[in-house]
């Protein structure tokens, strides 16, 4: 029998990484082999992201490159799945992109049928969004060679409709996965030797099980089910970040001391235009709660500059909030208008590119200095580090992350990948802690 082989390339967020593993599992059941070598594949899938225009442009470029492989392989099938598939639909068959298959984030179970249609030289498409699909019963096919840390999706979709954001349109309505299937998957990971699990969702704090249990209860159940594993979660929306979750973290020491709390802007007027449903004071109150209940936690964020009508004063409020919080790390972006969002219809993209770039550079420069100071404050402290692999620069050094999710590099000694080791920090840059094993 001629075995078929699939290659999947993933763009975008961690949810997409996990979805690619779900897709690999669905196709494995259909008899597909998974390959990391595109040249071996009879089916190439690009799992795509629509969050910014740049993310989509990268995929268009890639599709033009991949198209050339058809010359060598007449039977090759090319599929676009994920958020761009949902947003652009049959446009992906148009012009000269030549996708054979287009499948949105809720139609991966239908991929086998879509492939059959495409094999019969027809364009195969399913972009139906579901109110219930969570792929709860599908054990993801774990991709890559890191068998230490893994993702488990606990919810899908988003109901927040931040005015700039495409996700509610590409991922559909929010829905939570049942607790039993989450606990089962986490236990399976533990049995396979994994040491860390990250619970994923666009807004994990609004998790709601059918039984009525919320995120705080779920987090505690997970932490207690696998006490030897480190448990993390992302992303938290500040409006739903209650003290209950922080108290669960405080009493379960295997939950990582790390809160990712995207602020987007330090200005209450911008936050209102963004429809974030909190203001600067409320956000700072949540930071205060984290500092009080979890004094050793790191706090990281996402910042979005140059949104519609953002004034210099409003931009300055973002810089001042960054100084006030003292983030350990930030993902920083300039606003990219997304067709179909509320902002694209009602709030013109008024800030010119040069100003956006200048503001973004100011934000990046400030964050670099804050990250460096935050990391240098760790010098002399000892952390438990989960070893993930060799350092890129030096084969006698290992790299891992501490409970605060900071990357730590140290001479390897007797430590092995997958070990938890105590490392004392001796120096630090804005991106990394450097240390030595503390016996
Ligand atoms: N659900 C998460 C974020 C998902 S998208 C949350 O609510 O925080 C990740 C980040 O991309 C966002 O936090 C935001 O900073 C950025 N982003 C979203 N839409 C964007 C847009 N239109 N232009 C630029 N950045 C955007
Ligand atoms: Fe987008 Fe807002 Fe939902 Fe995050 S919470 S995915 S930024 S709409
Ligand atoms: Fe991108 Fe979709 Fe994730 S738009 S950020 S891949 S949810």
The residue ranges in which pLDDT falls below 50 over 5 or more consecutive positions are none
Q: What's the story with the biggest beta sheet?
A: 6 strands, parallel
Distance between the amino and carboxyl termini = 55 Å
The total of helices stands at: 13
User: How big a fraction of the residues is strand?
Assistant: 15-25%
User: What best-fitting shape do the alpha-carbon axes yield?
Assistant: globular
Percent of residues in helices comes to 25-40%
By DSSP, the count of extended strands is: 19
Structural class: alpha/beta
Please list the strands of the largest sheet in the order they lie side by side.
2-1-3-4-5-6
Q: Cofactors and ligands present?
A: S-adenosyl-L-homocysteine, iron/sulfur cluster, FE3-S4 cluster
Radius of gyration: 22 Å
- What number is the mean pLDDT? 95
Give the topology, please.
Layout: E1 4-10, H1 14-29, E2 32-34, E3 43-48, H2 53-67, E4 77-82, H3 83-88, E5 101-103, H4 111-119, E6 124-126, E7 149-153, E8 155-156, H5 167-171, E9 175-176, H6 179-191, E10 196-200, H7 215-225, E11 230-234, H8 243-251, E12 258-260, H9 268-273, H10 280-293, E13 298-305, H11 312-325, E14 329-334, H12 342-346, H13 353-376, E15 382-390, E16 397-402, E17 407-411, E18 420-428, E19 433-437
Parallel strand pairs: 1-2, 1-3, 3-4, 4-5, 5-6, 7-10, 10-11, 12-13, 13-14, 17-19
Antiparallel strand pairs: 8-9, 15-16, 15-18, 16-17, 18-19
Helix pairs in contact: 6-7, 7-8, 8-10, 11-13
The structure holds S-adenosyl-L-homocysteine, iron/sulfur cluster (SF4) and FE3-S4 cluster (F3S).
């Amino acid at each position: 029998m001629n075995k078929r082989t699939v290659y999947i390339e993933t763009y975008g967020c961690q949810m997409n990484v996990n979805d690619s593993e779900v897709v690999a599992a669905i196709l494995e059941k259909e008899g597909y082999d998974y390959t990391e070598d595109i040249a071996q594949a009879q089916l190439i899938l690009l799992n795509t992201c629509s969050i910014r225009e740049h993310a989509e442009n990268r995929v268009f470029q890639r599709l033009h490159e991949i198209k050339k492989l058809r010359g060598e392989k007449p039977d090759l099938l090319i599929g676009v799945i994920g958020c761009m598939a949902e947003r652009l639909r049959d446009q992906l068959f148009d012009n000269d992109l030549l996708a054979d298959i287009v499948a949105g984030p809720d139609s991966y179970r239908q991929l086998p049928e879509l492939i059959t249609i495409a094999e019969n030289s027809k364009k195969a498409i399913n972009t139906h969004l579901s109110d219930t699909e969570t792929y709860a019963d599908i054990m993801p096919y774990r991709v890559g060679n890191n068998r230490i840390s893994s993702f488990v999706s606990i919810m899908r979709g988003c109901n927040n409709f931040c005015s700039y954001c495409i996700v509610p349109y590409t991922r559909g309505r929010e829905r939570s996965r049942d607790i039993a299937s989450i606990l089962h998957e986490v236990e399976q990971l533990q049995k396979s030797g994994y040491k860390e699990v990250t619970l994923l969702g666009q807004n994990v704090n609004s998790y709601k099980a059918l039984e009525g249990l919320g995120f705080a209860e779920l987090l505690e159940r997970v932490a207690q089910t696998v006490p030897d594993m480190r448990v993390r979660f992302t992303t938290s929306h500040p409006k739903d970040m209650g003290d209950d979750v922080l108290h669960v973290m405080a009493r379960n020491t295997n939950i990582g001391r790390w809160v990712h709390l995207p602020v987007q802007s330090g200005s209450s007027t911008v936050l209102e235009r963004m429809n974030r449903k909190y203001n600067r004071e409320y956000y700072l109150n949540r930071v205060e709660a984290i500092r009080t209940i979890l004094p050793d936690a790191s706090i990281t964020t996402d910042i979005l500059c140059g949104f519609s009508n953002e004034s210099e004063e409003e931009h300055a409020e973002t810089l001042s909030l960054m100084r006030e919080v003292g983030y350990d790390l930030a993902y920083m972006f300039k606003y990219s208008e997304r067709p179909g969002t509320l902002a694209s219809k009602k709030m013109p993209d008024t800030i010119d590119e040069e100003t956006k770039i200048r503001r973004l550079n100011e934000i990046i420069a400030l964050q670099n200095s804050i990250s460096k100071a935050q990391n240098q404050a760790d010098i002399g402290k000892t952390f438990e580090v989960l070893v993930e692999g060799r350092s890129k620069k030096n084969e006698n050094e290992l790299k891992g992350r501490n409970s605060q999710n900071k990357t730590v590099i140290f001479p390897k000694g007797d430590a092995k990948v997958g070990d938890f080791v105590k490392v004392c920090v001796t120096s630090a840059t804005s991106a990394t802690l450097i240390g030595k094993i503390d016996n």
